[in-house]
Amino acid sequence: MADRSAGGEPVRHRRPALLAVAHGTRDPAGPVVVRELLARVRALRPSLRVAEAYGELVSPSLEEAAAALEGPAVAVPLLLGRGYHALIDIPERAGRLLPGAVTARPLGPDALLADALAGRLGAMPSVRRVAGGPPRPRDTVVLGAAGSADPAGAADVRAAARLLARRLRRPVPYGFVAAGGPALDEVVAEQRRRGAERVVVASYLLAPGRFLDRMRACGADAVSGPIGAHDAAARLVLRRYDEARARTDEPVPAF
Asked: How high does pLDDT run on average in the chain?
């Protein structure tokens, strides 16, 4: 006889839970944004069990969240590109803690994120007392990313910049504030030398933290808020869950 949950449902037949794993940040605003995003995910698919977890710095850790789960799970990295955490750390930890668990690919790059970035650009704050609002025709938009020492992660940022350029119908260079290059402040300065009326940074970040602080100090005229709890991002979390679940034997439900 199959093992049963407290509610009497056979565990092996239960829909896998969505274990959302964010990186983690010391900025207390970061987990707040993650919880807001997951609330939107739950609203889109109320019947789905959605658990919050972090790779480091914040509780519940991946281990704590996994211990509270019963039955199968799909781990969805709340990360915008490939790298150590998305490709090695989260899959290995989830696989060890939750036998049979599968790990989805990271959220980015994806056209849905370009939609979210475009939305955030429409409400960007000013950092130099210059009017915010949507980028004007002579403005330059630069995609600002954390950066990655992994060539695959850097390639994902380049792809994200191309998707945003297609969405905005204008060239979009990119720059990093941490690992790798080109450095965001140097890209911003170069665009000024080329005659940009304003330079606006689209923050390719999911939540606030030290990387957003660095972007706000890069010399741009305006910096958008992080992607955060955007409806397009919530739909993308579910898309990654469905893609990973399709690798199992169980059917994927419609929204």
From this structure: 88
Amino acid letter for position 158: R
The number of C-alpha atoms within 13 Å of 66 and in the hemisphere containing its C-beta is 23
- Please name the amino acid found at residue 170: R
Neighbours of 181 (CB within 10 A): 11
Please give the single-letter amino acid code of residue 183.
Answer: A
Average of pLDDT values for 143-169? 95
Question: Residue 198's Cα: distance from chain center in Å?
Answer: 27
Amino acid at 60: P
As a whole number of Å, the end-to-end CA separation of the chain is 31
User: Which one-letter amino acid corresponds to residue 233?
Assistant: A
What are the Cα distances from residue 122, in Å, to 102, 211, 249, 255? 36, 21, 42, 28
DSSP per-residue string spanning 168-183: HTS---EEESSSSSSB
Which residues, other chains included, contact 128 with Cβ-Cβ below 8 Å and sequence gap of 6+? 221, 222
Q: Which two tokens stand for residue 164?
A: 């945003």
ω into 171 cis (within 30 of 0): no
Pick from 90-94, 190-194, 251-255: least confident:
251-255
Contact 155, 161 (CB under 8 A): no
Which spans in the chain are helix H? 29-44, 62-67, 84, 90-97, 111-121, 151-168, 184-193, 210-216, 231-245
| 12 three-state secondary structure | helix
Q: Among all chains, which residue has been given the structure tokens 């490939």?
A: 82
Helix (H, G, I), strand (E, B) or coil at 66: helix
